[in-house]
Design goal:
The protein is of the alpha+beta class. Helices cover about 30% and strands about 30% of the residues. Strands 1-2-3-4-6-5 form a 6-stranded antiparallel β-sheet.
């Protein structure tokens, strides 16, 4: 496995620094929620993260940086995007999580 730019510890620090965010699990992987709303989770591949960003933001990210952001067949039609951890910065993760917090439930 390639070295990750973002470790689980770094993701945890960023996520838990946001108001109302708690850690749990989803599909057996670490996940971060605000209340019952899933914001992000580590993908089961261990090298990417699933982020709830809304359809418009997802489409923009996929077009702007397809080497970092992608979707799998499982996530087609959902307001989520996956990001390769070896290409995502903590600052970008924070912005995306803040975006997820601002989405209406």
């Amino acid at each position: 496995m390639a070295p990750r730019k973002l470790s689980i510890a770094a993701i945890r620090r960023v996520a838990l620094s946001l108001p109302g965010v708690e850690e749990g699990t989803s599909y057996g992987t670490p996940a971060w929620r605000a209340g019952k709303r899933l914001l992000a989770r580590l993908h089961q591949d261990g090298s990417s993260i699933v982020l709830k960003v809304g359809n418009e933001t997802r489409d923009h990210l996929l077009q702007a940086d397809p080497q970092t952001f992608f979707v799998t067949d499982h996530y087609l039609g959902y307001p989520t995007v996956l990001a390769h951890l070896d290409r995502l910065s903590a600052a970008d993760l924070r912005k995306l999580l803040m975006r997820a917090l601002s989405l209406r439930p």
